[in-house]
Amino acid sequence: MSSGFEKSLRPREFCEAVGISYNTLKQWVREGRVKVYRTTTVRWRISFSEVERILGTRQGYTGETRAVIYARVSSSDQRSDLERRVEHLTQYYASKGYRGVDVLSDVASGLKTERRGLLKLFNHVVNKQVDVVVATYRDRLTRFGFEYLEYFFKQYGVRVEVAFGKEPKGAYRELVEDLIEIVTFFAGRLYGLRSCEKRKLVEGFKKLLEEV
């Protein structure tokens, strides 16, 4: 039972403070990850100390939001663009009043899962060192399956903020490179990595893209 002198929160207030959905809160309660108590009206209440514990703050919850920047480009000749994206994201989270925890970046395809910066981001999330992940566009984190990644983050009370909405039309080149990588992968599965059929399929696909 919570002390009557300790501030308590309604479930929705707790969700807003921690940055999780109501369904996630119910799951945490079932798993015993959050302690709740019931009032005389049989409603949930959650002690404010649970917010402090979940957020991992040692000196009490101050309301500050811990942000990690994640930026990505597909090739080394885009490094200047990568620097600009980091600068834009830094300005973005500063304007929101967030506290920067880390700046992570990768020079790699959005299809590649073993990216150093992305893996470090996962560690921040799992260790509850961050409240929000800031990226320029959804596909900077992953070309496909963004919803799965977003769901995974939510289980740790982390949300994703996309600063600039949809990817600009100028990203055509990178999309073409990703399409070629996908076709090359599946052609190798169908015909073998070194087969003549695989090479013909990939080259034919590249020619088709050039005609579009």
Description:
With 212 residues, this protein is of the alpha/beta class. Helix content is 49%, strand content 16%. It contains 9 helices and 7 strands; from the N terminus they run βααββαβαβαβααβαα. The chain has helices spanning 11-18, 22-31, 48-55, 79-96, 116-126, 138-141, 146-154, 172-191, 196-211; strands spanning 8-9, 37-38, 44-47, 66-73, 99-107, 132-135, 159-162. A 4-stranded parallel sheet has the order 5-4-6-7, with helices on both faces. Strands 1-3-2 form a 3-stranded antiparallel sheet. α8 runs antiparallel to α9. The protein is elongated and about 75 Å long. Residues 1-5 and 57-61 have low confidence and may be disordered.
Summary of the model, kept short:
With 212 residues, the protein is of the alpha/beta class.
Map the helices and strands.
Blueprint: E1 8-9, H1 11-18, H2 22-31, E2 37-38, E3 44-47, H3 48-55, E4 66-73, H4 79-96, E5 99-107, H5 116-126, E6 132-135, H6 138-141, H7 146-154, E7 159-162, H8 172-191, H9 196-211
Parallel strand pairs: 4-5, 4-6, 6-7
Antiparallel strand pairs: 1-3, 2-3
Helix pairs in contact: 8-9
Ranges with pLDDT <50 over ≥5 residues? Answer: 1-5, 57-61
Q: What string, H for helix and E for strand, traces the elements in order?
A: EHHEEHEHEHEHHEHH
- Biggest sheet overview: 4 strands, parallel
Strand content: 15-25%
| Global outline | elongated
Please bin the fraction of helical residues: 40-55%
Distance between the termini: 67 Å
What is Rg?
22 Å
The helix-and-strand class reads: alpha/beta
Helix segment tally: 9
